[in-house]
Write a structure and sequence with these properties.
Blueprint lengths: L5 H29 L1 H23 L2 H11 L4 H31 L5 H6 L1 H8 L3 H6 L4 H21 L6 H18 L4 H5 L13 H28 L4 H36 L3 H38 L5 H9 L1 H17 L5 H26 L1 H23 L5 H6 L2 H17 L5 H22 L3 H18 L2
Helix pairs in contact: 1-2, 1-8, 1-12, 2-4, 2-6, 2-11, 2-12, 3-4, 3-12, 4-6, 6-9, 8-9, 11-16, 12-13, 12-14, 12-15, 12-17, 13-14, 13-15, 13-19, 13-20, 14-17, 15-17, 16-17, 19-20
Length: 482
């Protein structure tokens, strides 16, 4: 099975990741007005609860499956055997999680009607085989299915969700879209497994390795969902969870630009590790740090500079608090981008899940303690502060674990020109506010920011930017010469 282009796979995965986030973001402005802060708060709270069951039902199969499929790219018989064993195991564990979910939440309770609808989210998780296509470095198919399914779901939201009482319709559309999208990927499987016979299916033997990777996955997921869960439990006003979720929606979309490379790099790193190509791994790590810095700093500074105009324009009245939440949480883009390189792209593919698990568990513990203190004091603002500090703690731990294999000092030095260019960009964008205001100000700020930032990097003769310019120029010339 030939190696796919990392650049193409990045673009495919970027499209895939952005699509799953950007379309809900498109509807966010509409839903913020229709459902209100309380309706959105109920949605994110109930959705977070069902995601805990998805997490426990899925175990560590997504991470483990992607890695094992990547190892077996050149052995189709082994690849099919691994796929069948993992899918079978996932159906069993999701089934167990569904039974527990039914008795715990679906039968009665304040939001039981919403939990019944979100059952489809659990069923969708059972049919999720996106990890298989990621493992064989084929991201195109996941993109195509998402384009069709997500666009259809957005259309239905605008057609059917008209008032706050339509929250159940929104949940149904969201969950069923995931189910249909996941089932559609199964249609591509015959192409990869046709004519391949296997025997000796052994689900049990996969359990130890899956469990080992389940620990870091659950720690990571709990870490990501802890803020919303604790806000929902500790603060009676569900609007606080709504404000927090709205700020997170923007951050997640922008963070996708930075971390999508990680998903693409995992199978490639795993394959290089299996072949003992240490030098290549270090080269790819350097490129990943360059790429993360290139995008993280302008996104961080740019978001802070436009938040005052962006939030009222996008979310409408009643969401002023989201401005300060976005400003506080923006450093997470850089910190999570770095953790994505050290953890997802290096520690996991090189079978160092123990160190990865410890680093994430440290983040969970720090986040829980800080949330308990800060949410009581400052509500959603406290949750944002706790998130940033806990993610920094994760980064510090991971830096410590890879310090002997990767020259951390050199990797940090790569950030200087991007940081300086980002600060100059931020100053220029803030100066625009003295002249303009509102939507026009935001548009001008974005244009000024892009010109100033990349202009500064060209002045510094940044190799990464010049490489991108060269690639774009080659593509343009290729098109013109046709």
């Amino acid at each position: 099975m030939g190696k796919k282009s990392i650049a193409k796979n990045y673009l495919y995965n970027l499209t895939y990741q952005i699509l799953t986030l950007i379309l809900p973001l498109i509807t966010a402005s509409y839903l913020a007005r229709v459902l209100g802060a309380e309706g959105n708060g109920i949605y994110i709270y109930t959705y977070t609860i069902v995601n805990y069951f998805v997490l426990f039902g899925s175990l560590g199969i997504s991470i483990y499956g992607q890695r094992e499929i990547a190892y077996a790219q050149d052995n189709k018989s082994k690849m099919k055997k691994t796929f069948i064993e993992l899918v079978s195991f996932r159906f069993i564990t999701i089934g167990i999680a569904t039974i527990i979910y039914y008795f715990a939440f679906m039968r009665q309770g304040q939001y039981s009607q919403y939990y019944r609808i979100l059952l489809f989210e659990l069923i969708a998780a059972a049919f999720d085989i996106s990890w298989f296509f990621q493992g064989i470095e084929d991201f195109k198919k996941t993109v195509l299915r998402n384009i069709v399914v997500r666009l259809a779901s957005v259309s239905l939201i605008f057609i059917l969700v008209k008032e706050q009482s339509d929250l159940d319709k929104y949940l149904a559309i969201y969950a069923l879209a995931n189910l249909i999208g996941n089932i559609s990927l199964w249609l591509y499987l015959p192409k990869y497994f046709k004519g391949i016979k296997i025997k000796n299916i052994d689900i049990i033997k996969q359990i130890p390795a899956i469990t080992l990777l389940f620990v870091p996955q659950i720690a990571n997921k709990v870490y990501n969902m802890l803020d919303t869960t604790m806000l929902g439990k500790m603060i009676a006003d569900k609007s606080e969870a709504g404000y927090y979720e709205q700020s997170q929606k923007i951050i997640r979309v922008l963070l996708t630009l930075v971390t999508s490379l990680g998903t693409v790099m995992v199978p490639r790193m795993a394959n290089m590790f299996a072949n003992g190509e240490t030098k290549k791994i270090n080269e790819y790590m350097k490129k990943s740090f360059n790429f993360t810095y290139l995008l993280s700093f302008p996104i961080m500074f740019g978001l802070i500079s436009i938040s005052k105009n962006f939030v009222p324009w996008f979310f409408g009245p009643g969401y002023t608090k989201v401005i300060i939440l976005m400003d506080i949480i923006t450093p997470i883009i850089l910190f999570m981008g770095i953790a994505n390189i050290m953890g997802t792209q290096y520690l996991l593919p090189t079978k160092r899940q123990k160190e990865y698990t410890i680093s994430v568990l440290v983040g969970v513990i720090v986040n829980f303690i800080l949330n308990y203190i800060m949410i009581s004091l400052w509500k959603s603002i406290g949750a944002c502060i706790a998130t940033v500090i806990s993610q920094l703690a994760v980064d510090i731990m991971q830096f410590y674990y890879i310090r002997k294999e990767i020259n951390i000092k050199n990797m940090i030095k790569l950030s200087y020109k991007y940081l300086f260019s980002g600060i100059i960009m931020f100053i220029c964008c803030m100066l625009v506010q003295f002249v303009l205001s509102g939507f026009i100000c935001m548009v001008v700020q974005i244009c000024v920011g892009v010109i100033v930032y990349f202009g500064m990097l060209i002045y510094f003769k940044d190799e990464f930017v010049f490489l991108l310019i060269k690639k774009i120029r080659e593509k343009v010339m290729l098109v013109l010469n046709r």
